[in-house]
């Protein structure tokens, strides 16, 4: 296998998952700032032109971070990042969906349409800059919503560190770099972030 990596929270999420599982997969870094992800070669790996992508030994490529992590879980089940029972897997996927839809998407789209507009405007259709502010507000609102629901838990799925924690960590850290930090009134999130960031995999 070969992992096509780059800067950004999406590739980092997969690197964290690989580190949690102790996987050493050969990597190639794609220069997305220089447009290397917009070449015919990379479009053949991933028609959306985004990163990351995982090339399998048979030449097939898997893109999208949740699909890649699901695949790694299937071929290397331990330690489980999705779950060991149907109930655990359903719980993890439920929170992954909520975090992706309510927090990650508005955060990323708000960034692309404002601070990242110069880079992304030639590559995709963006919402207006005024809508970007609303998207950022939506992400902040849902971070506080999550903060309230998670009180008393070590991780998003109770005591289990899962793909949901990995995605949220990658994007909370990214948000802090792009002017979208955690809400100042959050109480659970800062403690959770400190625990997640202390894991060796967080440096991947």
How would you sum up this structure in a few lines?
This protein has 204 residues and is α+β, with helices and mostly antiparallel strands. The chain has helices spanning 9-20, 40-45, 65-75, 86-112, 117-120, 129-149, 163-177, 188-197, and strands at residues 2-5, 27-29, 53-55, 61-63.
Report on the structure:
The protein has 204 residues and is of the alpha+beta class. It folds into 2 domains: 74 residues, Glutaredoxin (3-Layer(aba) Sandwich); 118 residues, Glutathione S-transferase Yfyf (Class Pi), Chain A, domain 2. 52% of the residues lie in helices and 6% in strands. It contains 8 helices and 4 strands, in the order E-H-E-H-E-E-H-H-H-H-H-H. Strands 2-1-3-4 form a 4-stranded mixed β-sheet, covered by helices on one side. Strand 3 and strand 4 form a beta hairpin. The chain starts with a strand and ends in a 7-residue tail after the last helix.
In CATH terms, what is the architecture of the largest domain? Up-down Bundle
The tally of structural domains comes to 2
Question: Would you count the extended β strands for me?
Answer: 4
Beta-sheet strand percentage? 5-15%
Q: What is the residue-mean pLDDT, rounded to a whole number?
A: 95
CATH topology of the largest domain: Glutathione S-transferase Yfyf (Class Pi), Chain A, domain 2
Shape, principal axes of CA atoms:
globular
Q: What is the number of helical segments per DSSP (H or I, 4+ residues)? A: 8
**CATH class category name of the largest domain:** Mainly Alpha
Helix content bin: 40-55%
What structural class should be given to the helix and strand makeup? alpha+beta
Using only C-alpha atoms, the radius of gyration works out to: 17 Å
InterPro entries: Glutathione-S-Trfase_C-like, Glutathione-S-Trfase_C_sf, Glutathione_S-Trfase, Glutathione_S-Trfase_N, GST_C, Gtt2-like_N, Thioredoxin-like_sf
Pfam family, one: GST_C
Keywords: Transferase
Protein name: Glutathione S-transferase
């Amino acid at each position: 296998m070969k992992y096509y990596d780059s800067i950004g929270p999406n590739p980092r999420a997969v690197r964290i998952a690989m580190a949690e599982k102790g996987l050493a997969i050969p990597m190639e870094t794609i220069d997305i700032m220089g447009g290397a992800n917009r070449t015919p070669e990379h479009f053949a790996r991933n028609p959306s032109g985004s990163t990351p992508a995982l090339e399998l030994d048979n030449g097939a490529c898997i893109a999208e971070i949740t699909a890649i992590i699901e695949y790694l879980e299937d071929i290397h089940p331990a330690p489980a990042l999705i779950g060991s029972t149907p109930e655990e897997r359903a719980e993890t996927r439920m929170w992954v969906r909520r975090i992706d839809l309510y927090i990650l998407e508005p955060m990323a789209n708000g960034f692309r349409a404002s601070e990242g507009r110069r880079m992304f405007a030639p590559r995709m259709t963006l919402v207006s800059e005024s809508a970007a502010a609303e998207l950022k507000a939506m992400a902040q609102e849902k971070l506080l919503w999550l903060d309230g629901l998670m009180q008393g838990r070590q991780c998003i799925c109770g005591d289990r560190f899962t793909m949901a924690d990995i995605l949220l960590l990658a994007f909370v850290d990214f948000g802090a770099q792009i002017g979208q930090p955690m809400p100042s009134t959050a109480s659970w999130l800062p403690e959770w972030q400190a625990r997640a960031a202390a894991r060796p995999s967080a440096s991947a």
